[in-house]
């Protein structure tokens, strides 16, 4: 497994959110952790997004895994950057999408499918959700 | 030994009053949201305490960002018992701001398909990367809270509540 890119939000000198892109054979794993509470997360994650855009086409990837289990909180301003990252990946890689999320988290249950654009039949057809209990 | 079910009958009432608003320079909504999440989560299931966190974060942040009176106060009241979670935020506002919030809440409350409203609003506002405008819809569509607004000059009071039957 290799780390492809890493994005982070710092607030008050502390890392409050991170996202890591890893490649394991033909699988791309994008994990999200921490909390998005700041007003303009795009400012911090623009470079991460740009790196992914450049690096992904060079990799031989057939499957996607989005892991949201460690994402504790996402404010409304965080929605757009989650959409930016996932949309770019979904548009770049045509394969199946596995989404790991928390069973007891309202935003991951109700809003995350909207952000992933699962209403689109083409995306819905290749997306499966895996539910995890909140720790 | 006390059971989880017994713990989730605990009555908790909290109230915070902070003034003047101009002194609020840090992430007050995050502090209050996270603390309440921890406290409520010590008695109630995580899905309930997380709801409180989201509502407190959105409503307190809205109040701090939109209050025109820098010398005024913000009040947060949290009440939870085995039947109900209620969160109320009061902050100074112009009457025109109250009318705007009231109309927005009326629109939310009269919408049949809240998920569709949330999806359309997210997509519409994303085009211009607009800040705000999602919070109250999110509380209703995602977290299933019932919202209402009142005006007691010069304060705008926003109430959000959810029955806990079946949740805790």
Please, could you describe this protein's structure?
The complex is a heterodimer of chains A (135) and B (168). Chain A is of the alpha/beta class. Chain A has helices at 42-55, 78-92, 106-115, 121-125, and strands at 2-11, 14-24, 27-36, 63-74, 97-102, 127-132. Chain A has a single domain, classed as 2-Layer Sandwich (Transcription Regulator spoIIAA). In chain B, strands 1-2-3-5-4 form a five-stranded antiparallel beta sheet. Chain B has 168 residues and is α+β, with helices and mostly antiparallel strands. Chain B is globular and about 55 Å long. Chain B has one domain: Histidine kinase-like ATPase, C-terminal domain (Heat Shock Protein 90), CATH 3.30.565. Helix content of chain B is 45%, strand content 23%. The longest helix of chain B is centred in the middle third of the chain and has 21 residues, at 46-66. The model of chain B has no long low-confidence stretch (mean pLDDT 93). In chain B, α5 runs antiparallel to α6. Chain B has helices spanning 4-7, 28-41, 46-66, 95-109, 114-127, 135-141; strands at residues 12-18, 74-80, 84-92, 146-152, 155-163. In chain B, β2 (74-80) and β3 (84-92) form a beta hairpin. The A-B interface holds A 11, 35, 37, 39, 42, 73, 75-77, 79-80, 83, 104-107, 110-111, 114-115, 119, 134 and B 27, 29-30, 33, 45-47, 50-51, 53-54, 57-58, 61, 115, 118-119, 122, 126, 129, 131-132, 134-135, 138, 141-144.
Short description:
The complex is a heterodimer of chains A (135) and B (168). Chain A is an alpha/beta fold.
